[in-house]
């Protein structure tokens, strides 16, 4: 898999960041044993940092798995803060609940079973932060739903925007954005998503070279 920075930079990020607790360690071990696609500690720490810098109190995550990303965020929320986890797999959602209970974070979480986009469409509250970590093919509709749930001063975080195994690379993505024919469907889809972000004048988008690429879209108006 292509890397967005050197191993040494990754180690510096790990060294400087907050320590993983026992629950996170268990979740990371499970991801390794089951080859479950979590964002990893590097992106988890970045999620936590963004939550803290925004002063976020309300968070919605589209696609939660067994709660790894949400756990990083929940640790950073104030005691009266809330993160809404969404997951179509009831067993994974139950595992997320168990992990949150072990970490004494369940009072900061709401667990919703079902399709992430459908749940988001039915939300009537606004959020300080929305995290998109569901299927890349649904990122444009996901973003369009999320933008209606975020007020100015809030943000949307989007994971997996630069690399994916050998199918998506930064070099091929950049070439596609510059007008070349995309080598595969995923590259074309992500390039369309990048252009979608670029054309939305209500948001300023930044790309961070952590994990498999993290986009931060901050709502300015």
Question: What is the element layout, followed by pairings?
Answer:
Blueprint: H1 7-16, H2 22-34, H3 40-54, E1 58-62, H4 68-76, E2 82-87, H5 90-102, E3 109-113, H6 116-121, E4 127-132, H7 139-147, E5 150-159, H8 170-177, H9 185-198, E6 203-208, E7 214-219
Parallel strand pairs: 1-2, 1-4, 2-3, 4-5
Antiparallel strand pairs: 5-7, 6-7
Helix pairs in contact: 3-4, 8-9
Task: Give the tags.
221 residues, alpha/beta, Rossmann fold, seven-stranded mixed beta sheet, 9 helices, 7 strands, globular
Explain what this protein looks like in three dimensions.
The chain is an alpha/beta fold. The chain has a single domain (7-219), classed as 3-Layer(aba) Sandwich (Rossmann fold), CATH 3.40.50. Helices cover 44% and strands 20% of the residues. It contains 9 helices and 7 strands. It has helices at 7-16, 22-34, 40-54, 68-76, 90-102, 116-121, 139-147, 170-177, 185-198, and strands spanning 58-62, 82-87, 109-113, 127-132, 150-159, 203-208, 214-219. It has a 7-stranded mixed beta sheet, sandwiched between helices. The protein is globular. The model has no long low-confidence stretch (mean pLDDT 94).
Mean pLDDT: 94
Q: Would you identify the CATH H-level superfamily?
A: Vaccinia Virus protein VP39
The proportion of residues in beta strands is 15-25%
Biggest beta-sheet profile: 7 strands, mixed
Tell me the distance between the termini.
Answer: 37 Å
Main CATH class: Alpha Beta
Number of helices: 9
Oligomer state equals single chain
Percent helix range:
40-55%
**Number of DSSP strands?**
7
Q: Strands across the major sheet, in which order?
A: 3-2-1-4-5-7-6
The CATH topology corresponds to Rossmann fold
Q: What would you call the shape?
A: globular
* Radius of gyration, whole Å: 17 Å
**What class would the helix/strand composition place it in?**
alpha/beta
- CATH arch. level architecture: 3-Layer(aba) Sandwich
């Amino acid at each position: 898999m292509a890397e967005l920075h050197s191993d040494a930079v990754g180690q510096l990020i790990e060294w400087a960041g907050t320590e993983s607790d026992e629950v996170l360690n268990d979740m990371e071990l499970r991801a390794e044993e089951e080859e479950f696609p979590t964002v990893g500690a590097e992106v988890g720490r970045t999620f936590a940092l963004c939550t803290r810098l925004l002063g976020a109190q309300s968070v919605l995550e589209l696609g939660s798995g067994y709660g790894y990303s949400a756990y990083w965020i929940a640790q950073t929320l104030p005691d009266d803060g809330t993160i809404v986890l969404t997951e179509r797999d009831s067993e994974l959602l139950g595992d997320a609940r168990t992990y949150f209970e072990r970490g004494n974070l369940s009072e900061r979480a709401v667990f919703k079973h079902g399709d992430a986009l459908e749940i988001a469409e039915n939300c009537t509250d606004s959020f300080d932060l929305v995290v998109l970590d569901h299927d890349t093919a649904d990122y444009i509709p996901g973003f369009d739903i999320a933008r209606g749930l975020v007020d100015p001063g809030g943000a949307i975080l989007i994971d997996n925007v630069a690399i994916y195994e050998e199918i998506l690379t930064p070099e091929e993505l950049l070439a596609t954005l510059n007008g070349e024919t995309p080598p595969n469907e995923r590259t074309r889809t992500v390039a369309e998503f990048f252009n979608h972000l670029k054309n939305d004048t209500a948001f300023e988008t930044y790309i961070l070279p952590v994990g498999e690429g993290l986009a931060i879209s901050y709502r300015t108006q």
